[in-house]
Fold these 2 entries.
Entry 1:
Amino acid sequence: MSSDMVVLKNVVKRFGNIVASNGINMNVRRNEFFSILGPSGSGKTTLLRIIAGLERPDKGRVIINEDDVTNIPPYKRSIGMVFQNLALFPHMTVYNNIAYGLRLRNLTEDEIGFKVKESLRLMRMSPEVFANRKPSHLSGGQKQRVAIARALVTQPAVLLLDEPLGALDLKIRQHMMLELKRIQRTVGTTFIYVTHDQGEALVMSDRIAIMHEGKIEQVGSPREVYEKPRTKFVANFIGEANFFEGVMREGFVETNFGKIKVKEEIPASRKVIVSLRPERIRIGNAAVGSENMFKVKIIDLIYRGDTLIVIASLEGIEIKISVPAIHPEVMRLERDKDTWIGWNSGDEAGIFELED
Ligand code: ADP
Ligand code: MG
């Protein structure tokens, strides 16, 4: 048995002049929580609809559970779907909403009842309390749980989720993220989760594919894509980063404001961008002795409770530094004053070659 549950091979999909899927190759493993992350319009929904069979690719193959399903209609693919706006049937009770997919199969009412109650319990919703309610008497988070229960109760090979938490308030969304992760671990079903929210993708995923203009720029674990972004787009989209432009020399990058010592090897004389996460930069006395040290002027101090964000100017370039708010150095920082920042070679998140 292949370790892959879903495989996309060179999938191309155009809408007029727009290339929504521009040669997508993607492997999603069995039992994996896999996220597709990208800004609005990058082609996430199109990709999900192609996997579901709701959209036909112009080119390429779709394989689910080792079967080539490229020409198979949606209802014959073993998939469940949860969308932000995929409403529950409003006139049906929670019970009948969840039972809907089961009724299309030849199950007895006893079997259906057992499965509906079991799936409600998996959602941590008591069947006694919720089975007979109508969707209008549920909160947003509860509706999404019922939608997930309805999609999972038929035991699909893959569950596709398209921004399912988008409409929920922050607190409920944060809670539902952990719930979704727990549910996925419990049932073991392969989840493919589409979102534009990097926080959601980082918290829940085993692996993340980052999409940009119809292409996948990188696939990796949350740690990999954050710590080793392969493109400038990924470095910018996941987390925050400072970017310094310069020219590659032997072991350092030459910039307008001086040399930056780096670890990564890129052929000399190429134009590059060094990216550096705000939390990798030391400030004040803590910066002294670093391989890379620069004098900066503090423009602003933003208190965020756990961290302090320092906005500083380095020869006119705005730099963001994030330090734990309890750090003793923090007390000495003042707006409009000069201070030192520093970091060592290898602290950079990446170095990206610029195309001419
Ligand atoms: P995302 O889900 O990442 O926001 P989509 O997959 O919905 O992106 O869209 C990708 C691109 O394809 C967008 O430019 C969008 O306008 C276009 N697109 C998607 N579906 C259609 C369609 N049915 N007709 C025309 N253009 C479409
Ligand atoms: Mg979308």
Entry 2:
Amino acid sequence: MTEMKKKILEKFKEVYGDKPGARAFFAPGRVNLIGEHTDYNGGHVFPCALTIGTYAVARKREDRKLRFFSMNFEHLGVIESSLDDLKPRREAGWTNYPKGVMWAFGERGYKIPCGLDILLNGNIPNGSGLSSSASVEIVTGYILSELFGLKVSNQDLALIGQFSENNFNGVNCGIMDQFAIAMGKKDHAIFLDTADLSYEYAPIRLKDAKIVISCSNKKRGLGNSKYNERRGECETALSEIQAGMGIRTLGDLTEEQFETVKMAIKDEDCRKRAKHAVYENQRTIKAVEALKKNNIELFGKLMNESHISLRDDYEVTGEELDTLVEEAWKVDGVIGSRMTGAGFGGCTVSIVKDEAVDTFIESVGKAYEAAIGYAADFYVVEIGSGPCEL
Ligand code: GLA
């Protein structure tokens, strides 16, 4: 038994008492290598699951009560609810995520016959933008499927997770995070076409290099409303160029096609957002081709271009992420660096040569603290698999 499994089972016993039937599970976090803000524009993304994520223990109850406990928020104690009260509530805090998934299972016609005691322990840094909420959603879905023998496929777990986040938690996210987590495969990234959910696993063989996450530690205050605003701007742009073109999404356009129709988009900001969506999608396709040809330098260059587009056209980076990336670009041995995830805070992803990792952390760390006034955190991460029972 792994150390972690022992630790969470012991804590579960301490919190909920020692009765048989407790089972332990895990779902990863994710990082997106390239293809940002394309997933709600019918474009491609290229994320991978991580070996860090959310650990959970769950046990069936004899009544319809739900009890939640998080080792990350121990001070909140046990939070109670019931299968007959699956409504989002501000005071329910983080438990709105697992409750949302239970509600979404019901909407899909799955019966949850009895309540549960659940304990979570995540090792994804809080608020880092490595999708701790999608990880909680997927681990919850996996628990329900396994404990009640529902045999829900991992792809459906992703769709149910997204549905609950959109309709229960009010975040209008795309499918990328839940898909990357539910479908993760060790040492592979997922090249996903969000227009039809066709996907391909691409091995990430980084010879002599590592994936380094730099976490800005910026609090993401207005993140969700800005996110929904960008979606709206892309929808406006699409509707203005759609007439007569026969396209369904911005992901259907090549760069050349976009350049010929772009002036139909009246508002300049909307035009810039659409430009990013189109170019970023094409960049993601090119990046995966480069990787297949083992051209990691070109992959890195496309990551850098992705950041510039997110900074100048999509405008979702901000001083913190720009500082992390621009300082990273100065370090010898950095193959590519960009913001990852929604932006407005959160973190960056960099591919760094083995021998440069220590210098990278030291020099980016120092420059960031001097410019921003507080420290960033750095994590050398590995690509892991999807959800599992421990
Ligand atoms: C968040 C959303 C994803 C995706 C990214 C941006 O992580 O949850 O669906 O839109 O932002 O690429």
